[in-house]
Amino acid sequence: MQTVQPVQEQKANRVINTLALAIPIAVAVLLGIRQKVDLGYWTTYLPHINGIINSLTTVLLLMGFYFIKQKNVEAHKRTMLTAFALGSLFLVSYVLYHLTNESTPFGGQGWIRPVYYFLLISHIVLSVVVVWFVLRAVYYALSGQIARHKATVKYAFPIWLYVSITGVIVYLMIKPYYLH
User: Fold this and answer.
1) What is the number of alpha carbons within 13 Å of residue 120 lying toward its C-beta?
2) 110 conformational bin, left if phi > 0, alpha if psi -120 to 50, beta if neither
3) Closest by Cα among 106, 105, 121, 103 to 162
4) Which domains, and CATH codes, for the chain?
5) Other CB atoms within 10 Å distance of the CB of residue 147
6) Between the CA of residue 167 and those of 9, 32, 113, 120, 162, what are the distances in Å?
7) CA 30 to CA 91: how far, in whole Å?
8) What is the DSSP letter of 180?
9) Residue 70, Cβ neighbours under 10 Å: how many?
10) Tens-digit pLDDT profile for residues 134-143
């Protein structure tokens, strides 16, 4: 097991805390920009790509859980790092879409409307919260602090899985209202 020095730990904590704050703030600021950038029609496909990314992330999270329960640490590590990479790709794609396109309003009526907004709001709130947990879990795993990694993933895993699944559900619910 690798030992982490206190100075390294402080630097890592600073980076994690900064990213966990900076990412949602940057996304909120970017979403608030009213003047959209024209990068072409291809950006209208990004929500569909994001739906695929969230679906793949859900599968990878469940596979990672399965692998660790089977004590296949190497497969778990590869799977979870791939899920982390997809999450990062999703973030870039999500921001790019909202920089280039107006948000699509949900057109559903009746009982489905509050269900959609409950899922959407809980998804958004927990997607902000999960960043800190996931960054910390990845750091602990990569720095060999497995006991701390396990303690962190007790929260990170279910939140990340919920965010991933609700991302797919919200996408499927709003999909009929996209332009194409």
Assistant:
1) 14
2) left
3) 121
4) 6-177 (1.20.120)
5) 9
6) 33, 20, 16, 8, 8
7) 12
8) -
9) 10
10) 999 999 999 9
